Amino acid sequence: VGKMAAAMPHNPNKQAEHGRDKALTPPEGASVQPPSRDATGSTLAEKNHTEKYGKPAAPGVNAAGGSLERVRADPEGQPLTTNQGVRVSDNQNSLKAGLRGAALLKDFVLREKITHFDHERIPERVVHARGSGAHGYFECYEPLSSLTQASLFAEAGKITPVFVRFSTVAGERGSKDTARDVRGFAVKFYTDEGNWDLVGNNMPVFFIQDAMKFPDLVHAVKPEPHHAMPQAASAHDTYWDFVSLMPESTHMLMWQMSDRAIPRSFRMMQGFGVHTFRFVNAQGESTFVKFHWNPKLGTHSLVWDEAVKISGADPDYNRRDLWEAIESGAYPEWELCVQAFTEEQAEAFSFDVLDATKIVPEELVPLQPVGRMVLNRNPDNFFAETEQVAFCAAHVVPGIDFTNDPLLAGRIHSYVDTQITRLGGPNFHELPINAPLAPVQNNQRDGMHRQAIHRGRSSYEPNSLGGGCPHQAGTQGFVSFPEPIHADEVRGKPEKFAEHYNQAALFYNSQTEAEQRHIAAAFRFELSKVTVPAVRRRVVSMLRNASEELAAEVAQGLGMELPEAMPRALAKTPKPEVEVSPALSLTARQGDAGIQSRQVAVLVADGVDGAAVWDATHALQEQGAVVRLVGPHIGAVTPREGPAIDADASLENHPGVLFDGVIVPGGPDAAKRLAADPKAREFLTDQFLHSKTIWASRDAEALLRQAGITAQDEELPGIFVTAKGGSKALQNFVSALGHHRHFERERPAA
Ligand code: HDD
């Protein structure tokens, strides 16, 4: 019997199992082989090693730390096993008492599999639940030792590995990418003196001044508690109720209602440390510092109508963009800049630098570039890396310290605390993505899921039984900046914190006309979703203190009388140093990358001018654009002459909102087919309304007219209608595409 069981371990009549052999075996050539994993990795992006990825842990380094290679699991050529490494013979059928009999309790293979599955989910982040991550490196330009002893800034050319996570704030883990929201911009630097997390946003200010209000803010913006709506949206009663009672939020509201809240790409947005931090040099001297990340591709955004449509067409829009750019080798890059200023300078400012609702205008303290960050590798596994990464505003390294910003103080507590629930215990620092490259040694012990195997008898300090180790590092370690303090313990705010409108006005007044129009439209949209008129009135009364023009426009858009301005907290408003700052407009940073990684659609249908399709496609690809051939359906399209064209996208699965520009090549038959297709018309209408670049053959005139593009419109910027193709026309298209959008032609109602 024993022998028989070994030869026929399952159903003795295995071949007869219903549908077994044919249904589960893909025909030859129809299965995808995993990429072969050689020493350099499997994908282009993987070939770019970072130290975190490529090297074994140094002796003495935390057992969980160091190289991620150590924990990578590749199934290639491997049999399926249980978690105990026992090979699984049959992954289709549970163990039963007879083919039609009851399942057996002793089926440990089934039970292990189901039990593990039952516990696959962990709690999502209470805010910033939806995010996308990438690996890369930071490179220091010049030694910054006069300002800071932080080792990552110690030498020109010094490389420090990083992991970055971008996120929306309010939406749940599965929510859309293009919600109107702040974007998180969190960077973990694995420096050789420990991890530094710069946990910032794509906006340089915050809604509130004191961490005491953070739970209130988040409760107000999240879906309302009784019916859990709306998802990933601030356009609802409780949010506007709260912010309208918190006039300190006015400045942040300007940013949040601006196009910055709907970035075209994570790769095209700025990042900010928000708070004022301290640099501390080796002599113990401190300088205040603000951190800025400026994207090489420039700052570019969507327009609202487009964002709304993208959320249906591709809810993963920003995540996909980041992933595909890195896979294709178009590595996103940012320059890190600092604004460094002394406490004495700060004393003289009309605002308080400890107030996170205020910026330090660049005109007051210029930006100093200190290094660059390149993201060059996608994570191997979303959960292990992007989901389990734990950022913490308290993670600083020698040379970087806090200030007394009361919002920052709460953060120093909150981030570690939240991981204990989210990641299930106090040892989350040992997860490979969180573990530092620097050695970890201390007497913290045990707890859920401990990985390190601590050796020796002593887990206390001082000790003599362990040779006194690990010993404290004295001045070689992190020394908190010894800020002198002479004060009473109070609950309250300094007086400058009470001025809420100067910088809201500064922001609004520094925007271009189109940006101002979009801000007014955003307030109108959001407040039109508010069902309580008193809340709408309170917001508009607040706006009057920032901009009468904006308040009037919003009031008109909401069909309401202009209310009285909200009383100000300060009797006398301090005069701001700067009243207009061009750097605050998105147009200030257009980037220098031309059309690299821009998405262009070439519309194709039977009868299209094949030569024109390929000329345009190849020329654009040469300049780094991503070209998709979009047809009425995917697959073969028959051109006027030449071989069939393989459309890789369709008007249905890739609508116009997913592209930065469109080309409609010649071919009267193709043009006629497209003009008769409502989806092609909508494609062009959206491209036109969203101020994108359009180049169409004269053959496509009927399509243009159907899309609402008149003969006069053809004269507008970013629209080219030509009888023939040719390099001049192509050049015009490329240079217009490089401008991103042509808001000059925007119709005010858009
Ligand atoms: Fe926060 C996550 C950024 C104020 C408490 N925050 C979180 C993330 C970012 C920020 C980017 C996501 C990190 C990731 O990708 O995992 N938060 C900010 C900025 C703030 C800010 C720029 C203001 C300047 N946050 C703030 C306050 C508190 C928190 C005042 C609490 C007192 N934040 C959290 C948190 C989160 C978080 C609850 C949720 C998940 C996590 O930490 O890991 O602890």
TrEMBL record:
Q: Tell me its EC number(s), please.
A: 1.11.1.6
Binding positions (heme): 125, 165, 214, 411, 415, 422
Cofactor(s) the record lists: heme
Instruction: Spell out the Gene3D superfamilies in the cross-references.
Output: 1.20.1370.20, 3.40.50.880, Catalase core domain
GO biological process terms held by the UniProt record: hydrogen peroxide catabolic process; response to oxidative stress
Q: Which CDD domains match?
A: GATase1_catalase
Q: Which UniProt keywords apply?
A: Heme, Hydrogen peroxide, Iron, Metal-binding, Oxidoreductase, Peroxidase
SUPFAM superfamilies named in the record: Class I glutamine amidotransferase-like, Heme-dependent catalase-like
Query: Which top-rank group of organisms is this from?
Result: Bacteria
Specify the protein name: Catalase
| Source taxonomy | Bacteria, Pseudomonadati, Pseudomonadota, Betaproteobacteria, Burkholderiales
